[in-house]
Structures are given as C-alpha cells and as structure tokens.
Amino acid sequence: MIFKDSNFSEQTAWISVTFTVFIAWFYANGMKQLEGTFSSDADQIVSLWAQTIIASIIFATIAFIALAILKKATGDDDDIALIDERDELIEARATRWAYYNLSTCIIILFFHIFCQGIITNYPFFPNVPPIDFLIHGVMFSSLLVEFILRASQIYRYRKAA
Amino acid sequence: MSKQAKGVISNQLRKKRFEKDEMTQQELAKALGVTRQTIAAIEAGKYSPSLEVAFCLSDIFETALDELFQWQANNSKISKE
Question: Does the CB of B14 have a partner CB in chain A at under 8 Å?
Fold first, then answer.
C-alpha cells in the first residue's frame, strides 16, 4: 500500500498529486468544450477558471477530511497536526525545485507571446490569441508546478530525507 | 566560494533505544515532538537531525552527543575559501 509507513504530510502530498491530475483533466476537458478548443470569449474563460478553482477546493477539502477521519478511526492520528523539521526541510527543497519550474514556464509563455508578436508565420499555436494562450498557460503552469511540488515531496519522503 | 564538508554521520540511536527499556520509535518520536518516520530516517542514516533535536536526544538518553552521533569525514579539507 502506498500509504504504508508514511506520515500525514506524505499522505496529503499523495492526495494533492492525485487531485492535480484530476483538475488538469477537468480544465482540459472544459477547454475542449469552449468553442473551437480555444475561445476568446472572456466570460467563458473566467467561468472555466472559477469552476476549476471551486472544483479543486471541494475535491481537496473532501479528500483531506476523509483522510483525517480515516486516520482518527484507525487510531493513527498522532501526526495529523504535527509538522516536524524533516517535513519542513522536504517542503522547502520541493518548493525551491517547483519554483524553478514555474519561472521557466512563465518565461516560455512570455517568449511565445513575444515571438508571436514579431515573427510572421510563427508556427506554434498560430490561431490562439496571445491573451488566451497566456490565461490557459498560467493555469497549466500552476497545475504543473503543483504536481512537481508534491511529486518532489513524495520522492524525498520515499528516499527518506 | 566555500566548500561544504562531506562526510557520513552514523548514530547509535537504535542501540540506545533498546538499552532504554526497549523504547519504541513512536515513544521516542512523541518525546521529541517529531514523527515516527523521522526517527526511522535518522536511525537508517538517511536524515541528519538539527542540533536542537540531537541535543534533545542526548538529554533523553542521558548520554553525550558524541556517543550518540559519530562523524566520519570523507576528506580532510573541511572548508576552503
């Protein structure tokens, strides 16, 4: 079992990884339903953003409450409110790695928009307006960074340091 | 540019635990205010605790810090500017 010999922080990281994948799927699915895959209708995009954020909050809340109840029921609840120095160290290292990736994603997004503005017949996503690309790009970058953050935490917990 | 010292920290935590009425990892974790997984990681030599935790361990086992933790340097040059 993946939760064997793991503390509450690692278990929440597993849940976060799972819901990040689910939210990415949810957002991608919502994007497909927008007219012509990408839509420049600001209301539709804002609505999709709101739905995605609300869905992620609901999913995370339910999952974390269920985990806490399960741990309480099994008498394994000593570490629910406990974050020790190792947890903090692992989170700090994972956060540093995740934010390197976030910086890279933001640079790529703006580089793409810059290239689209100055290069005629730019080959990548030629039919997507820059603002739409930026909005969807920011959402996917955030999800990717969240995934990297939690996956990196799990890796370090499994590696033990 | 400073060069960090490289070496291996070993410990006698497991031995000391058993000498202290076969104290469990969970009991030690509770006494220290850390998770059981952290104690397991320290014992396995995969995580080096902070000085605060190391001193607390030394208090709990009523032993000197250098009896509990040993340092084996990989090279003699500890730090170089």
Answer: no
> By CA distance, what is B48's nearest residue in A?
A161
Closest-CA residue of chain B to A86: B38
Residue A40 main-chain phi, psi, to 5 deg: -95, 5
* ipTM here: 0.79
Residue B81, domain member (yes or no): no
**Cα–Cα separations (whole angstroms), residue A70 to A37, A83, B26, B44, B78:** 41, 19, 19, 29, 48
Residue B63 is part of which domain span? 10-70
Q: How confident is the model at residue A1 (pLDDT cuts 50, 70, 90)?
A: very low
Q: Is residue B43 part of a domain?
A: yes
Closest Cα partner for A148 from A158, A138, A156, A136? Answer: A156
Q: Is B9 an 8 Å CB contact of chain A? A: no
Residue at B3 is within a domain: no
Residues paired with residue B69 on neighbouring β-strands, in sequence order:
B11
